[in-house]
Amino acid sequence: MRTLQQKGKFENVIQEMDRIKLNILGLDVVKWKGAGSMKLGSKTLIYSEGHTHRKGVAILFDVTTAKSLGSWCPISDRVVVAKLVAKPFKSRNYSNQVGLYAPTSYSEDVEEKKFYEEIKKAKGYLKSQNIIIVMGDFNAKVGYERVEDVGPSGIGTVNARGSRLIEWCQVNDFTITNTWYQNHPRRQWTWKSPRYRLPGADCDSDHIPIKCKFQMILKKLRQRLILNFK
């Protein structure tokens, strides 16, 4: 979801987060300088530099989820990553959130290349065996044609940024979850023009929030003891 520079604007965002019952909310174009964390009412916000007043990303956690926040890292003004510790495995991080804001289709190719290098850096900060959830605005259109296990139910025709995203998902074994289910076309758009009335967030944003509900079942793996008798 996109938000604005003024901190007071977050009041509506928090209300909307409670209304649609979200534990974690990814935000982009936050436009705050520097990087840090802060309390916003009962919520905890981590944010990564938006020094140009054009970019900046953040992740907002509710009071329960914030208790599981182990550590976080501001990668750049387009990428931020957080580690959530799953109980009872306190020594390991199992669910990791990567918030991002990709360059638009009008950006130079070198900026897009830098963006994917920053995502790679974020992945390097995490453990490969852990669950990784990437959320944010990729500024890409992946189209409606099925591409293996990446996702088959987008809209329109894939564009150059969409092809790059699909390729990245294939290489890194990711699925674009919001394109995996059949929905009415008006519920497939993630951006809305002020001229059109589409289902969206009741706050100052031109992006439609994507809500994802998932469940993790963690199991302890028992080591097998092999005895070799001679």
From TrEMBL:
It comes from the Eukaryota. PANTHER family: BUCENTAUR RELATED, CRANIOFACIAL DEVELOPMENT PROTEIN 2-LIKE. This is Craniofacial development protein 2-like protein. It comes from Plakobranchus ocellatus.
